[in-house]
């Protein structure tokens, strides 16, 4: 299930937005300030952020700027500011789209879903069933099978496998994996990824000391590969 973070200090509007996302089959959390958003982003992973520009404390631009140092998650700005410079600044700060208040909830949903469907934004498998070599990963059931046998993984191990398999052939840095699996502002050490990778390999690789699928890329991070003949 897709998960959206609504960063909006107008409580009534935030609730309307949340109900619209939930009615469309998505989960939605609300933060009334950038500081509340930072807290949520330390322990949860979101597929899209809806961010008001005018917030108490850090404004929406500062939130997006800080987020972009850690994550490429789509950000949709929403603001009553209609001047062209506001739209330009939203893009310059790393935003992906800009909605002028008042906006329709249908437009909001369409914009968010379009961004989440962009190939460069899709990470992991979410609700998809992905078959790769001996593995079959079910994003909805949160299960993975190897050669038809169900393998028990912890939630973090599953999310790590999902992130790597969903970006097969692409190297992902430890920082990128921390943002995708633990949260953009998670206060954990990069070594945490290495530890979970070792656990994942112990469960999914025939020879964990010499991994065939979940590989280390020296100086870059990790990558899921399929050897020739298994593709």
UniProtKB/TrEMBL annotation:
The keyword Phosphoprotein belongs to this UniProt entry's keyword annotation: yes
Modification type 4-aspartylphosphate: residues: 52
Keywords linked to the UniProt accession: DNA-binding, Phosphoprotein, Two-component regulatory system
CDD domains per record: REC_OmpR, trans_reg_C
DNA-binding region per Swiss-Prot/TrEMBL record: 127-226
SUPFAM superfamilies xrefs: C-terminal effector domain of the bipartite response regulators, CheY-like
Superkingdom, taxonomy of origin: Bacteria
Domain Response regulatory: start-end pairs: 3-116
Domain OmpR/PhoB-type, residue spans: 127-226
One of the GO BP terms on file: regulation of DNA-templated transcription
UniProt keyword annotation of DNA-binding present: yes
Species of provenance: Adlercreutzia mucosicola
Protein name from the UniProt record: Response regulator
GO cellular-component term (any): protein-DNA complex
């Amino acid at each position: 299930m897709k998960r959206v973070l609504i960063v909006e200090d107008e409580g009534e509007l935030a609730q309307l937005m949340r109900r619209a996302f939930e009615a469309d089959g998505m989960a939605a959390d609300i933060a009334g300030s950038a500081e509340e958003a930072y807290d949520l982003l330390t322990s949860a992973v979101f597929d899209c952020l809806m961010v008001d520009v005018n917030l108490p404390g850090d404004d929406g631009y500062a939130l997006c700027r800080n987020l972009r140092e850690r994550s490429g998650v789509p950000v949709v700005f929403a603001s009553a500011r209609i001047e062209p410079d506001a739209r330009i600044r939203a893009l310059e700060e790393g935003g992906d789209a800009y909605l002028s208040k008042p906006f329709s909830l249908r437009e909001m949903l369409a914009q968010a879903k379009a961004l989440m469907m962009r190939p460069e934004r899709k990470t992991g498998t979410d609700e998809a069933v992905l078959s790769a070599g001996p593995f079959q990963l079910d994003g909805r059931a949160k299960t993975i099978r190897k050669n038809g046998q169900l393998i028990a993984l912890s939630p973090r191990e599953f999310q790590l496998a999902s992130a790597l398999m969903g970006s097969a052939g692409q190297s992902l840095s430890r920082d990128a994996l921390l943002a995708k699996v633990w949260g953009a502002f998670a206060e954990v050490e990069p070594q945490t990824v290495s530890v979970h990778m070792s656990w994942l390999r112990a469960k999914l690789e025939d020879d964990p000391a010499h991994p065939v699928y979940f590989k280390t890329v020296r100086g870059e991070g990790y990558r899921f590969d399929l050897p020739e003949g298994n593709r």
